[in-house]
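User: Structure please.
Assistant: Input sequence and predicted structure:
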Amino acid sequence: MQYKISVLIFLKDKTGRFLMLQRAKEPNKGLWSPIGGKLEMPTGESPFECAIREAKEETGIELTEKDLHLFCMAAEKAYEGKGHWLMFLFDCSKALDTLPEQIDEGAFAFYTREEIDSLAIPETDRQGLWEIYDRFHDRFVALKVDCQPGKPLEFEIEGLIPSDNSVHEMPQND
């Protein structure tokens, strides 16, 4: 099985409700999830560039790298027995003003964190994604998830960077 590389973006409105998309296409057709999409690998797109592009395409919001916090890199092994996914999860600090219009990917709605637990969401999201968001959205975690069919989902933290308030900048080339 080949790896597919994707991003998920956790966008909120000004009251803190999460933007969710009821997917009209596979994977996860009919289920609710945060927005996102696959990296355009032929162009060398980075996960940040992909998140910015997908947010614009799906919601119309204009983002920069400073609006996004990469809080998780998750390697999902054998998702639905069809492929492996390397996913980059971003928390967005810029709020949406309005609910985006429906797109060919599906329809949007805002939900509180508590309401999301009662939605029809992918099993990997129910068993781990939202707990990962709750626990790690203010820092960084690398994890792997064994999704092989017929076996219970297994989540393993491979690396964790604690949260702190300091900003770490890359040195500039002179």
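The longest strand covers residues 68-79.
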